[in-house]
Sequence to fold (195 residues):
Amino acid sequence: MKTIKKLTLSTAFLFITAFGMANKIDLRIVKDEDSKTLVFRYDNLSTDATLKFIDEQGNVIFAEALEDKTEYLKRFNLNSLETGTYFLEVEDAVKETEYTILVEDSGISIENKLEKNKPVFRKKDGMVYLNLLNLSKKEVEIKVIDNNDRVVYNQVFKNEGLIEKAFNFKNAYSGRYNIIVKNFNDKYFEEMIVD
Fold:
């Protein structure tokens, strides 16, 4: 019982540490006449990330990798873009952030900001630790599937704000296992190979 408590406390500490070191994002509109300019700032404190600027059809207009432990500043001049809706997406190890940007003849506006927390996986000594901050408390399903597409574990969490799970693969049969986390419309995967 002491081992389980110790394990739970250590994974909770890692999870809280990961979110305490969350990367900071700032997106602002530059107030210039006849200018449609955004300034994006990203203080990358904890992990590598990706930045994408995407149009309504899903075409990537701009993409860049943002390195760990760096500050990133970028000006986006949107004067040449057609009228429409665009998306600025930032994804790192613990979160996905998406801004909806409306480009009109008269100017630009930031219409919406959507943040989704991703599950955090950590592997150590034949164990996989999973933590998910589920602020919406929507239903979350976790499955483990082996390399023969058999479900070896399945659990549905309802109305839980913090989901913590430890998977022990120390005595598992050799092969490839996939841990699937389905959170509302999003799916996340983590692979574990047992020799």
Remarks:
- The two ends are 29 Å apart (CA to CA).
- Residues 143 and 154 are 4 Å apart (CA to CA).
- The chain has a mean pLDDT of 86.
